[in-house]
């Protein structure tokens, strides 16, 4: 699943995925397209990454290995209940996204 991140919309990324994922759904990356950011529907994006960032990135790391270790530790400390709640929230988020015609929506 891709969101509106610049790295996801990069031509090289789109080509790589197109060549390797049989059911790839292309994104219009032309400069003329008004690519208003779409809401995140990926559980990792709307829930888990913020937890990992808060835990693992609260201090600078001296190396990539140190960052990886910090992320792994933070991941292992996330309770199953937190993951379950994030996954259970998906149908509600999807419904709100459909109601907003794919645009932004508030998640209350």
TrEMBL record:
Basic and acidic residues biased stretches: 1-12
Molecular function via GO: nucleic acid binding
Source organism of the structure: Acrobeloides nanus
Region of interest called Disordered, as start-end residue ranges on this chain: 1-40
InterPro entries: RNaseH_sf
Protein name: Transposase
